[in-house]
Amino acid sequence: MEKELYIKQLKPFLYLMDEAHEATGYIVVGDERVCVIDTMNGYNDLHKVVREITDKPIVVVNTHGHPDHIFGNVYFDEAYMNPKDFEMASSFFNEPEFVEICNDKGVSVPPLKPIKGGDVIDLGGKTLEVYELPGHTPGGILLLLREVRILFTGDSVNHHLWMQLDGCPEMQEYVKALDKIIFLEKEADVILHGHATGFDDISLLRCMRQGAVEICNGETENDLPYNWFGGVAKQHPFKLENDKEYDRAASVICYR
């Protein structure tokens, strides 16, 4: 079943795809190739969407292995993902309901190819550098579009971070992982995450880290319950910087 797909051109070479306000993907057009970052829930034929923009060869990258970022892979020949999320992604691809939908549509899941921290995707005139950030999922990656200082973060850095899932590390370990990539705030000016409607100032990365540190320090006396499909967790609000521009005002980390 198709749902509304909203396309917003952020720059001459960059498009934001908002699929029914459930997930966000991106199209980055280089001189020689085009990259699709996250394919969302698969409600719409994204290959057709890309072809309405450009006829250049397509590279598909999944920032992590959750369904709302990978199900649209079925419209492409292959997709790249951190192998640490392969098993998770396969479990979702093999869910009976999704298999039935694919059969009805006459599509199939393409092979996953490995991508890891340190890899570089050359689109011709534009390069996407890969950095690993385990936390939300074991294989979460960030993509730095170096030439224009944009950091794509999937769900690993956003205003509503889920860290209550099975497989998420202890918050102290997540802070250590953040510390390894915090230097990226010097390399990028803005963030585009996996549920965005526009740009966030790069300081979102530092603000989110501070929220995680507060949880580690037990500064959680005002945290409220968070009801989600897996039960009840907790949510910790973290502050944003007053003089910066963000995609939204309220920000929380959900945790066990």
From TrEMBL:
Pfam families found in the cross-reference section: Lactamase_B
Signal sequence extent: none
Classification via Gene3D superfamilies: Ribonuclease Z/Hydroxyacylglutathione hydrolase-like
Domain Metallo-beta-lactamase: 22-195
SUPFAM superfamilies, sorted: Metallo-hydrolase/oxidoreductase (SSF56281)
Superkingdom, taxonomy of origin: Bacteria
Protein name per Swiss-Prot or TrEMBL: Glyoxylase, beta-lactamase superfamily II
